[in-house]
Amino acid sequence: MAAVVVAASVHDNHVGTALLEKVAATGTVRAVLVDQGFKTSVVEHGATRGIEVRIVARNPGNSGFVPEPIRWRVEQTNGLNMLERRLAREYDHAPSCSESRIYWASAGRILRRLAGTPARWRDA
After folding, report:
1. SS3 38
2. Average pLDDT, whole number, for the chain?
3. Which residue of 46, 53, 99, 115 has the smallest Cβ count within 10 Å?
4. How many CA atoms lie within 13 A of 2 on its CB side?
5. How many helices (H) and strands (E) does the chain have?
6. In DSSP terms, which residues pair with 55 in a beta bridge?
7. Taking the domains of the chain in order of start, what are their residue ranges?
8. pLDDT for 5-48, tens place per residue?
9. What does the pLDDT read at residue 106?
10. CB neighbour list of residue 34: distance below 8 Å, 6 or more residues apart
11. In whole angstroms, what is the distance from residue 43 CA to residue 70 CA?
12. Are 52 and 79 in contact (CB under 8 A)?
């Protein structure tokens, strides 16, 4: 798992290349799926790192909101991260602090799944 936290003004392509650098360091990822916001520079950068970057396009026949099965996983993960108290608001000023909070939230969620305990926000 890898995360990159940047300001909202940073373009998707810069974030995509930074994320590919982190993922390439693990050496285990062979293919990455991205949405239409990413351009060919991310695809070319992935090719130099030995990672196949595939752009998942929307079906032009659909109108309105239609969840894409593959891309919906990312939105679901972001939604689950927002249930964590420290990720619901921006408390930290440094992006590295926010990035570490994402790792802590994800690790906690994975450990709860492995232990078979319910999520904390569902407890009465």
Report:
1. coil
2. 81
3. 115
4. 17
5. 5, 2
6. 34
7. 27-58, 66-116
8. 888 888 888 888 998 998 888 888 899 888 777 878 888 999 99
9. 85
10. 16, 42, 53, 54, 55, 56
11. 18
12. no
